[in-house]
Specification:
single chain; Rossmann fold; 7-stranded parallel β-sheet; 6-stranded parallel β-sheet; 13 strands; 14% strand
Length: 400
């Protein structure tokens, strides 16, 4: 086994997960050998398209050009253009009746196969993400290269169990929850990755406990809380009005796993009681469920990664009644904006002054009513999050 005192790490990831906090953190620590991703603004042909004025960029191009690996030398970044384009075509030509999870299995396998065929140079460690690591780890293990798995969320087997129950409890809300693995194909990939991994990096104790709950290898798990990669510029502390309603915000995909159904229940119970509810994010709900949400919640839909800060600053309370997360960055973002956070233990939140409540509407209502009685007694205080540089140091320590 190679020394990991100063590992040379190759990171493989689809998309800009955590705004590339892993490769950026490892670059700060001087341990990044390279990063392979599908597309970002630092590789061809996208870096040449940055000359197009922002106002003239179509939505899909703007999304790619917003993927920036700040602090990483361009020669260390490798894009997979063919995979990226093939995937985009594949979304349009998804097989009839195929679940999203089955599509992701095919996508992840194609990405991992592409990465496994590349020249890894002097890398002695590979770092990849659950469900999208198997073929990479198979090659690495055959060559004596260390394998580090980032377990971004509770295991697929765990989420499938709780969401099947939630579907029964809340009929008509989400026809096919995307976190349910109907054929166990993603589950099989993930659990095969566990066997090959030398370390499993978890963002919260909740993820470790979920791995334990399905009989996974908790002895391989290392806890490394997430950073906030790109906090906004500091703003003055909020000054709260005595007369305005309590403004409650939810940020995230509208889906059963993140608890939008409980937010709806709470909003309905507090209707007309000096509370204002807002939700920001895309939806996986049925049209009927979306209409239920709109009846009590001001749903704004998807917003840009920079625009969301306006909503955090609008809110008095950030509420995330989630059933399962890896570690919810939205809680850190809200705390950084000076917004009080109420969430469940499943959020895996380490944000300061977070209030943890049971996943029960009455308990959440009681907590919000208590906030209403105690409000306006002080101005809110924003908290600095952990930096990407600190995160990189912690990642390197976790590999030892």
């Amino acid at each position: 086994m190679p020394s990991v005192d100063t590992p040379r790490v190759l990171v493989a990831q689809i998309g800009a997960r955590r705004r590339y906090a892993v490769p950026r953190g490892l670059a700060h620590a001087g341990c990044l050998n390279g990063v392979v991703t599908d597309a970002c603004s630092g590789v061809r042909p996208w870096k040449y398209l940055r000359r197009i004025p922002t106002s003239l960029r179509p939505g899909p191009l703007r999304a790619v050009l917003d993927r920036r690996l700040g602090g990483v030398d361009s020669e260390r970044i490798h894009g997979c253009l063919k995979f990226f384009l093939t995937t985009r075509v594949g979304v349009l030509r998804a097989r009839a009746g195929e679940s999203k999870v089955s599509f992701w299995v095919r996508q992840n396998e194609a990405f991992c196969t592409a990465v496994a065929r590349l020249d890894w140079g002097s890398a002695d460690t590979v770092y990849a993400f659950n469900g999208a690591a198997l073929e990479i780890f198979q090659r690495a293990s055959a060559r004596g290269i260390r394998c580090i798995l980032d377990q971004t969320a509770a295991p697929w087997r765990f989420n499938t169990r709780i969401l099947l129950t939630e579907q029964t409890r809340w009929p008509g809300w989400e026809t096919s929850p995307i976190d349910i693995d109907p054929d166990d194909h993603m589950t099989a990939r993930e659990e095969s990755e566990w066997k090959l991994a030398d370390r499993i990096i978890c963002g919260s104790p909740f993820v470790v406990d979920a791995i334990r709950a399905v009989g996974g290898p908790v002895e391989k798990c290392q806890l490394v809380p997430y950073p906030l990669p790109d906090p906004p510029a500091p703003r003055p502390a909020k000054v709260v009005s005595h007369d305005a309603p309590i403004r409650v915000l939810f940020v995230g995909t509208l889906q059963l796993r993140k608890g939008i159904q409980y937010l709806y229940d709470v909003a309905a119970r507090l209707n007309g009681h000096d509370f204002e509810f807002r939700a920001v994010g895309p939806s996986n709900l049925t049209p009927q469920a979306e209409s239920w949400v709109r009846s009590h919640i001001d749903w704004r839909g998807r917003v840009g990664i920079n625009d969301v800060w306006t909503h955090y600053h609008w809110a008095d309370v950030f509420l995330l009644p989630t059933l399962s997360e890896g570690s919810a960055n939205v809680c850190w973002e809200a705390a950084t904006a000076g917004t009080q956070v109420i969430t469940t233990a499943a959020a895996g939140s380490v944000a300061p002054h977070t209030t943890i409540v049971p996943l029960e509407p009455h308990a959440i209502v009681t907590q919000l009513q208590g906030r209403a009685r105690a409000r306006r007694q002080h101005t809110e205080v924003a908290f600095p999050p952990r930096s990407v540089a600190e995160y990189g140091v912690d990642l390197v320590c976790s590999m030892s």
